[in-house]
Amino acid sequence: MESISRISSLLETARDLTLEAARDASNARKTSTQMLPSGQLKKLLDSRSERDVLEGLKRVVTMSYRQPPSQTLPFFTHVIKNIASPSLPVKKLVYIYLLQHAEHEPDTALLSINTIQKSLTDTNPQLRALALRVMSGIRVPVISQIVSLGIKRGVGDMSPYVRRAAALAIPKCYALDPNTEPQLLEYLSTLLGDKQFFVAGAAVAAFLEMCPDRLDLIHEHYRSLVPKLIDMDEWGQLATLRLMMVYARKCFPRRIKKIRKINSNPKSTSTTKTTKGFYDSESDSEESDHQDMEDIVILDPDLELLLKTCQPLLQSRNSAVVIAVARTYLYLGTPDYLYTAIGPLVSLLRSASDIQHIALYNIVQVCLSHPEPFVNYYSHFLVRSTDAPHVWRLKLELLTLIFPYGPPRLQSLILAELSHFSHSGSLDPGLVKEAVRAIGRCSQSSATSAKTSARCLRLLLAHIGSADAHLVAESLEVIRHLIQRDPENHRITVVRLAKHLDAATSAQARASIIWLVGEFAGLDSENNIATDVLRILAKGFADEAEPAKLQIVLLAAKVYVHHINANPPPEPQKPVEGEPSPSLLGDFQEDGGFRDPHLESDHVQNTPEKQLEKPHPVEALYNYILFLTRYDTSYDLRDRARMYRALLATPTSTQLASLLLLAPKPVPQTPSPSETRKGYVLGSASLVIGDEGGIGGLRGYDDLPPWVKEGHEPDPRLREETGTTSVYEAGGRTLSAAEQLDAATGSRGRVGISTSPTKNLNGIDGVSTVTSSSAKERTLDDWLEEEEDESEEETDEDEEEESEYESSEDEETESEDEGEEDRLVK
Amino acid sequence: MSAVEALYIFDEHNTPLLEHTYAGRPPSGSTVLPLYLAHPSPRPSLIYLPDTNPPTLLYSIIQDHLLFLSPCSKDTEPLQVLELLHRVADALEDFLGSPLLASKIEGHYDVVAQLLSEMVDGGIIACTEPNALRDVVEAPSFMKNLLGGVGLPSSTPSSLTPSATPFSLSSRPSPRLSPTPVSQSPSPVPWRRANVRHTSNELYVDIVETLHIISSPSGRPLSAISNGSIAFTAKVSGIPDLLLQIGCSGGVLNTVSLPVFHPCVRLNRWKERPGDLSFVPPDGRFLLCGYEVDLLGPAALDSFSTSKNAKSAPKLNVPATVSIQTCLGSSGADFEVRLQLNPRFSGKSSSPLPNSTGSSFSGRGGLGRGIGGASQGTTAAPTIEELVVHIPLPASVKNVADLRVAKGPGDAGYAPGDRSIVWQINSREVATLMSTDRGGGIGATATLRGTVVGQADDDALDGGPVSLSSNTYDYDDGTSLSYQSPSDHAAQATDTTATNAKRIKQNKVLMPSCATVSFSVKGWLASGIRVDSLAVDQKRSKGLGAGITPYKGVKYLCVSRKGVESRC
């Protein structure tokens, strides 16, 4: 979702004018906060009037943002003196100053600790939370024990705000003094089980910060944390989803069952989820008919609970949450779950451009492994003229990734799109290049049909006529790749390219074409154009540019080698010499069938006669080209010519020359640009940066842990909540997963009905995704009802807070009775 | 996990406004700014700086010309940090007033400091909900400046913002002995602050849609997406429970796709009855919902046929479209841009609109809040405003000669060296243009002509033309030339016009490849979505006095920011 300020800027047309005016005025605006001399400022801070103190503090805070700390440090004592002030605004500003400067004056800062400690027992929860936050934020290691005690007090506080501050203070205290870890872990464990979701969310964040490996602390809270996910704030959701990804990988072994494809009804998959032994025996027995078997992932009920709870989060306004859910589904869930996340992922493209950019990286990452579901969203990936280079690069990649899976219409659309950007004077040379490459990738993809490939090639060939040098060079490069991948079917393409030599003027383009002709010189010897091309090129050799000349010499050498190999010179004393070379060539063009035995014999018969009269035209051409190069200005060219001459000096021994000149070229691979990032976890910064940040990701990058092996996972009974009766326990272990889940969703669905009359439809649906979000509804409605209760018993205020806390506790612990109880209260 | 290490804000001249460090020892703002600026523009939102110590990931957003930077030394979720930066900008705007200006930040460092320290605690993002922040941070107010904060007890309820009520001072429960103020009991709804009081109860719905349309050279729309946002402004006392029903002629479920919601919206209600948004709003302005509408419909792909049957082309109701023709004239250096305005948006209320039924809006509030002047456009007669046509040019274009508006009004601007031509037509000129429309449903048109001038030396070595044989391998006609057949020797001799053809070919590279239109239309939405009703559920609402019906207002706005694009 766009941020509200961006939307309001659309709504308020006068806003741009205001900004303009502000920009003009900004040079003259420095007058608004003029500096006071330090003596006067100190006087303000020492004043008895609260108003003066506040004014002084504001000025000091302003200074601290605008100037280095050396400027504001002289006021340290004067500011700290006010820490005991009864005024909350004064206190807040003192705290802010203290946090910024405590490190520079640790000793004086210690003096303030006592006062802050007193604030921990203040009646105002806001003040208590503030004090706890400030105390833990002072980076003076000696106070670690005091901070730890403060946290202990905060953990037991009845205000959730204070408990949240305590949770957030835990990693800070740990950073101060790692020795406090045992106590801190104890507090953390309590807070992880907190009933208030924003406390639990903060506790999870603290857990990840402090000890992400202590998964043993999570077991008992797993089943209470997951349902709370939906009600946490976005940042708590992010932390929890991150934790759960690691937890699930380490605690739920991946069970895969093979079932027949035909009768793959979901019922059988879930009912047979039982023990390991059963699974083993089944897989053994069914191994015989392997091909019509399908792998079905059996989800642990606890894991399934997590996956289902996540579903409403896909409609979160926070893009990071959407990515986190997609990540959970990609790495933990089944493709069915992932497909539900595709639409929300694509919807991130309508956010602000900065978010759009990062989201595209993640979409590409998902698309690399699951391209099909993205096909329907093709219209979001069309490149707009306003897109920045880093955005269109990814969009073009997406188009090529979905290309093989689209219907023919879509394929034409994508090709038209790509060719639009590759010609017609596009704005950015980089875009031209990338679009041409994208066409190449489209045609290379294994899923593309031959007909479509031919169409891509036709598109590229059309570009050779363009006036844009970048386009021609890039197109030829891609054409070359395409031809090399499948030389057999592209003989005529080469002929066609050779025809272009008449017109192509770009040296690079000519060189590229000549090289291709040379590569194909050996194919289909009776109908080969290489010699002819060489003949024509030899005429204009002197006018060629150097890259083209180099290729012409190479072509001449290749043609000559082929000629010698095809017509071994008649030297009867060494028949063995001539024999191996054809076989070498035969290896090179395995199924080329470049000459027939009878033709060969024909040649052999002919050659002696020709030899007598004059040299064969090929030989003459070769010698002519070498002769020309001897007088060329480029010594690189002369050197090469010399090398070929030496290599082909004796026509009888061409083995080495064949090896050098006719070596089979490796088929060029052009993977999708993002393939290099494929190893990085979805949603991480390493995915965006790529290998630039160092192989293996940036600092702090955690790779996805592998699935725990069957039998090595922690006992699932650890997850059973100790205090409450879990719905999972109710039926005993003999229940199937589906039944357990039905029981769980059913019971919670009933709660939804009883609390709120609007939920009736949900109950009928019985869909658990709906029910999980109904948990949110229920709590909200309960708050509202609480609020009503609160207003009734406004007599005792301390009691009020207490009772409210307790009732919210009740609401979480008792799952079924609670509805009726609420009725009774009413 | 420690996501946020510091936050730096710079003004439009890149002078530092603010540096706030949360955790660790991140490189300072003065270190990272030059490295950020060294990156060629447009700069991505995440830049890796390997040369700092420690190597740093730099996140950046630009909001209202202010640059927000956040360095980070560890791998975190990038979107988490970027979302936070947006929320910081939103919160600052909420507290300091819109738009966010450098001078406002400079004048209220004390408030900014409190906000920033509340939002992130020790590097962990703690609280970003504007209403929750209102509970703990006092917004700067005129009233407080007046009184100077003297004598006000520490427990001043933060709901004493000017938006509350001028009488709140007297109605404050001052004689209380217990110093626990009401605002400090936690709000029961996390996104709504406690004890909201307003004297005038008002509810406003603003639906904004942003158009993104791409048309192929033949004029056929390739994609047409309208991104909608529902901004809601709630100024209602107590805890109101609202039901907003949006409707659409084709059914909401078929129209609206991929919605996202503010956490306050009850998802079940939407699932049961799409179009119903039931929620307890936060106080103040917020984004209720975001959605998108595919104006072409799901069957768009099938209508792309190779045969050029215009009848199958999907009909779009775009207020203004543009088409561009290139390679005109004898040397092929001219181009022509045609702007076409849809007659529906002439501003004459005589043409009744199918979607103007929203005027049967319940409540005593009227439509079109705050729309001053009749010429501004209403639901019944929407008009086009702020019409601008952008024509981006390739880098090789050195100048545009003879640029003129051939027909119709407006100013076309281009300075040699610019990368685009800007053609602006103000609202009055649009109205004049519209009045020239003779009816017949075609609408008014205007044209712009120009001639591109490229590099002086045509025979530059590298950029040299690769003019080729006259074989044109046009992929469009596909079948006419099967390239695999070596038999086609269409090598017609280049005739006398060879040199001219060569020049046309060169000029082709210089031609613009697309044109975009920007505009805004008040009172009309491309998707046809409208607000059917907005009701306060009296039974479920708390604290709203009996019999009080809030004033309700609805506003529709459809904008295109270079969003309507035509290729050529």
Automatic annotation (TrEMBL), chain A:
Keywords: Membrane, Protein transport, Transport. It is found in: Endomembrane system. Transmembrane segments: none annotated. GO terms for biological process: intracellular protein transport; vesicle-mediated transport. InterPro entries: AP3_beta (IPR026740), AP_beta (IPR026739), ARM-like (IPR011989), ARM-type_fold (IPR016024), Clathrin/coatomer_adapt-like_N (IPR002553). Residues 782-826 have a biased composition (Acidic residues). SUPFAM superfamilies: ARM repeat (SSF48371). Residues 263-292, 566-613, 706-826 are annotated as: Disordered. Its main location: membrane. Residues 40-650 form the Clathrin/coatomer adaptor adaptin-like N-terminal domain. Pfam families: Adaptin_N. One of its GO terms (cellular component) is endomembrane system. Residues 592-603, 709-722 have a biased composition (Basic and acidic residues). It comes from the Eukaryota. Residues 267-276 have a biased composition (Low complexity). Gene3D superfamilies: Leucine-rich Repeat Variant. Belongs to the adaptor complexes large subunit family. This is Adaptin N terminal region-domain-containing protein. It comes from Massariosphaeria phaeospora.
UniProtKB/TrEMBL annotation, chain B:
Belongs to the adaptor complexes medium subunit family. This is Adaptor complexes medium subunit family-domain-containing protein. Residues 200-522 form the MHD domain. Residues 155-186, 349-362 have a biased composition (Low complexity). GO terms for cellular component: clathrin adaptor complex; endomembrane system. It comes from the Eukaryota. PANTHER family: AP COMPLEX SUBUNIT MU. Signal peptide: none annotated. Keywords: Membrane, Protein transport, Transport. One of its GO terms (biological process) is vesicle-mediated transport. InterPro entries: Adaptor_comp_med_subunit, AP2_Mu_C_sf, Clathrin_mu, Longin-like_dom_sf, MHD. It is found in: Endomembrane system. Residues 155-192, 346-366 are annotated as: Disordered.
